[in-house]
Amino acid sequence: MTDEQSGDGRGEQSDPRPKPKYGELAPPGWTWQPPPDPCAAPEKPAEDVGPGRGSAPSAGWAPPRTPGTPGPVPGAGPAAAERPRRSGDFVATIALLVFGLFSVINNLVTLFDLDAFLRQFAALYDIQGYSPNGEFAAAGVGVGIFWIVLYLATVWLSVLSLRARRLTFWIPLTAGAVATLSATVLYLVALLSDPTVLDQFSTAPPL
After folding, report:
1. Which of 129, 148, 128, 143 is nearest to 188 (CA)?
2. Given a cut of 90, is residue 147 above it in pLDDT?
């Protein structure tokens, strides 16, 4: 068998149609293709990845954020969007915060001038000979500063909780109880530390 015959044999295996001779036009639709290489790996079909198709994004994937756009708000993720909005809790929280603001402003005058408040208390209950010596004035200022910090922290926590759609009214309610307790303890210690007040209440007639 000659080389020409072996070449014709390979051509007939790749395409059953007759190979045109030199100078002859090819039949309609005929294209030359190289013989397949037995050592080549089979080609994989390309995956059709179109809009809305293909692999789903991973759970931790997030779209790129352009500069200037706000980032995610703490506590306001998908879980916050699923929580129902509590209109009653919102109204109660705002009402408690407004009441707390007026209470702080009113009591700061008393706390920053504790001696004047103690004199008024002694005159109201007719405690003779009571004269505050100013040793609790610094404690009154300290409690007043504590009230200011406590109120600001309460507003901040309440706003975060409302944005996350959590139950919030208990935050200003608890802060108000803590503030009232601190002022009450200060007033009692300042009054009961004076022997004149203790004698007045110990000798008072029973009701």
Report:
1. 143
2. yes
